[in-house]
Every structure is written in C-alpha cells, then in structure tokens.
What we know:
- It is a single chain.
- The protein is mostly helical.
- 72% of the residues lie in helices and 0% in strands.
- It contains 15 helices and no strands.
- It has helices at 2-28, 34-51, 61-70, 77-89, 103-138, 143-157, 160-171, 195-233, 236-243, 248-260, 262-266, 274-277, 280-285, 291-300, 304-332.
- The longest helix has 39 residues, at 195-233.
- The radius of gyration is 26 Å and the shape is globular.
- The chain starts with a helix and ends in a 7-residue tail after the last helix.
Amino acid sequence: MLKYILKRVLFMIPTLLGITMICFLIIMNAPGGPIEQIIRQLKYSGQSSMESGGTNVGVSQDVIDDLNEQYGFDKPIYMQYLIWVKNIFNLDFGQSFMYKEPVWDVIKSKFPVSFQFGIISFILIYLICIPLGVSKAVADGSFFDVWTSFLLFILYSILPLMMGILLVIFFAGGSFFDWFPVGDLYSDEYEFLGFWGKVRDRIHHFVLPMSCYVVNSFTVLTFLMKNSFMSELSKDYVRTARSKGLDERTIYYKHTLKNALIPIVTGLGSFLGILLAGSLIIEQIFNLDGIGLLGYKAALSRDYNVLMALIFISSLIALVGRLISDILYTFVDPRIDFK
Length: 339
C-alpha cells in the first residue's frame, strides 16, 4: 500500500504541471490583462484630471514597456510559466494585482468563510444522507420512502440561486419574517458572548446559507446510498445470513452496510473540493466574502496570480481527495488491494 501511495504522489507532479500549464496558457492569452487594466485606470485618471482643469498626458509606450517589465510580461510565455513553477516550489504565489498584497495572504483572509461552510456541510451531508438512504432502502415502497423521495426531488429541482432568494425573502426580513441575519459569520457583539452564546450566534448566521450549500447534495447522496444498500440486500450473502436465522438489524448494519458504503467512499475524496471552492451565488446572496467571490473578482480583474493560485490549490486538493478515496477503499473492503 505504501508503494502505491508513493507512486500516486509522484504521479501528481506531472498531473499538476499539465493542469497548470494549460490553464496558464489560456489565462495569459485572454484579452484584457492586468497591464490593460492599469492603462485603463491611468487613462481614466488622466480624463478626470483634464475635467478638473489638469492636462491629459495619456499613456506612452515607455510606460507600457516599464509596466510589462515590472510584472514580468516582457518575457516569453514559456519563461513566465517556468518562473511561476519555480516560485510555487518556494511556496510563493506572487503579488495580487487587485489587492496589492501577497496572494497567499489574500487567500488566507477569504479561506475561513469557505472552509467553515465546506466542512460543516460535508459533515451534515454524510451524517444525514447515509442513515436516510439506509432507512429508505429498508422501507422501500412505504409511505416514508415515497414522501421523502418526493420532498428530496422538490428540493433538488430548486436552483441554489432561487433557494437563496426565497430564504432571504421569507426568513431574513425580505417581506415576511426577520428570523435570520444576512451577511458575515457572527454578530458585532460576538466577542462578548460566552461559549454557548457564540455557538448559538454562529448557528443563527449559518442556517440560511448552509441550507443552500447542502440542499442539492442531499438528494444525490441519499439515493446513491439507498440504491447501493438495496443492491447489497439482493445478493447471496444476505440470503445466506437470513437462512442462518440472523436478525435483520445484524444483517443490515453488520454485513450489508459496510459493502454498501463502497460507492459512497468513491465520492468522499471529491467532496474535499468544497472546502476551497466556495459558492459564488451563495456568497453573493448572503454577502459572504469567501473563495467563490474571490475567484470571480480575480477573473473579472484578470488577477492572474490569484487565479493560478486557486487553480493550483484546488487541483492539488482534488488529487489528494482521489488518493484518500482509494485508501478508504481498503478499509471498507479488505478485498481491494492497491499495489
């Protein structure tokens, strides 16, 4: 197993290089780069000066050449990429053109929002969907199975954008009830609250955006768990266990559940991506300053260093997640042996 993990880790290096190289070429060849953004600001500043009685000096070619040299855009694109890779090995993501700060500091300032929602939604989804899927499989065709399926499909059909708008309108002082706040992760008096007061305050702020985060994932994972569990119930080893007189609870939770979890484990690693990805729509609606909004602003302002850092980190998390899924396979099903 250790040999397999080492091989996978070594394979991540060319994979990351391939992903970042393709993204780097696309981003650097997109029109309207940082230099164009700066020139536009300089021209706008010159126009404002002229309107207030100043002179419009314009932007000379020398200024443009100096800007290209300052930001390293005067070099061939392959050289720019090699410099970026070298800096990555030194854990240097460069300077943000938009925030005028080191990229890593910018990402760290936005990371807590996306991480908190990501990790809590991750835990909630698995804690709720696995027992719910098992219950639906055991009670397949019953009233409980039918009405929970109907409810899940209704929730799945509602887009996160529409769900967020409806929640704000109905429960955040939009037109009906003013039960929950919108914006930030805690109240202004948070620091003066006791431990349980802080917990209640966090929950109060998390309810609406968290509902949007998890609602779509509930349906997919619940039905995946149900179908996997029902598939295991139809196999010979379950019939053999019943013929030996084992009670249903033992069959379900000692023999069937472990095998039914294998497809769930497959997607476990991919869920790590939500720890960084954030959600632009949810962050916009609920006024949360997270990774999703950062990526959107970086794309609009052509903040290459921030975009490349987010691509690199999210790709690394995705690859590590796949490796974790493979490792978990061996714990769920000892028959699986990666060599």
